[in-house]
Amino acid sequence: MARDAKKMSAPAKSAKAEKPAAKPFKALVTHSDELPLEKELLLSMHDTMVKARVLEERLIAMYKTGHGYFWIGGPGEEAFNVPLGLLIKKGMGPAYDYLHFHYRQSATLLAMGEEPLGALRQMKNTALDPYSGGRNFAGHFSKKEWNLVPVSSPIEVQYGMAPGTALVQKRFGGDGISIVTGGDAGTAEGDFASCLVWSSRKGQELPVLIIVTNNRWGISTPFDQVQGVEKISDRGVAFGMKTKTIDGNDPISAYLELKEAFEYVRTERKPYLVEAHVSRLYGHSSASGANFATHETDCIAQFEAKLEKAGYLTKKQAQAIRDRYTEQLAELANQVKEEPFPDGSTIWDHVFHGEPGRDPFAS
Q: Would you list the DSSP string of 57-84?
């Protein structure tokens, strides 16, 4: 099983990989030559990044072998999404962080302590899917106990929702904040502009951490054909909010920059716009083939080279971590194959609050 698992999880190379955007990002100032974080934290981040990558590769393998219907996820964004998850104050209610995510946050969920089995069940659409009971796409997470608002397929609607929970938190007090994530192309939607407006009104600013993960693509349209600005973070300047563009492929830089942003929003109760440059290693989704893009920066390979140089991790140890998660997730995927699909009688469950199984067409 282990040999088969490794074969299934290996990155699928493609002769038709996407071409890079016409105007690549300018180099950012990062902490790439520094190791200012403790060894234990660095190794923990690396472990979770690898776990998240192997999970996404397993989901892709499930789709390609007929055990899933559609895949979309965040391989290539682990260096940003793992630090994000580690800094979140998780819990239920306005005292904790409200999470308005999009469909590339699996690494964030794993960093928060979620197990990968739920993601596998959602890919297979089994009745045991904890996020939607087998009724939604992969990556469409939701978890009431963690204030994780259900991820939806319509692009960027989460930006319009975040000021609502932030307003509740502003009135409630404490240091809970609302965190919203989305992609670069979606910032052309009106919901993003609404978020900037309603988060930054003078004297009524809201505690919102506004995040844009910029992978330079909107499905197949390159960044420079959609945005008139060089940096999406500049969009926040006109609204008087703090902004920053960071290297999302460097987990050390991402952790330090996000920590600063979290502390500002928690204490000042005002918005902060963070743009993170990230990679898109397997294309937009299964709709574009989900094949490995060789021209993109692999944040895990880059991080492993840094850890090896510091004497924290050897190539053999790194491979052992990947092999361990590859085998574990292959076993879980085989388990999920045998699980039942949702029964037709459950179609209205979770649609009407407090009324499981209600038939809206009944007299």
A: HHHHHHHHTTS-S-----TT-HHHHHHH
Q: What pTM, to 2 d.p., does this model score?
A: 0.89
Residues 266-320 have pLDDT tens digits of: 999 999 999 999 999 999 999 989 999 999 999 999 999 999 999 999 999 999 9
- CA gap 71, 137 in Å, rounded: 7
Beta carbons within 10 angstroms of residue 148's beta carbon? 24
The Cα 21–Cα 222 span in angstroms is 5
Does residue 69 lie within any of the structural domains? yes
- Residue 2 pairs in a beta bridge with none
Which has the closest alpha carbon to 293: 306, 284, 301?
Answer: 284
Buried b (16+ CB within 10 A) or exposed e, 244-267: bbbbbbbbbbbbbbbeebbebbbe
The answer, yes or no, to whether residue 222 has pLDDT greater than 60, is yes
Domain that holds residue 317: 2-10+37-338
DSSP state of 89: -
Domains: count for the chain: 1
The CA distance from 262 to 175, in Å, is: 10
Q: How many CB atoms lie within 10 A of CB 327?
A: 18
Question: CA-to-CA distance for 177 and 180, rounded, in angstroms?
Answer: 10
Residue 357 lies in a domain: no
Cα 42 from chain centre:
19
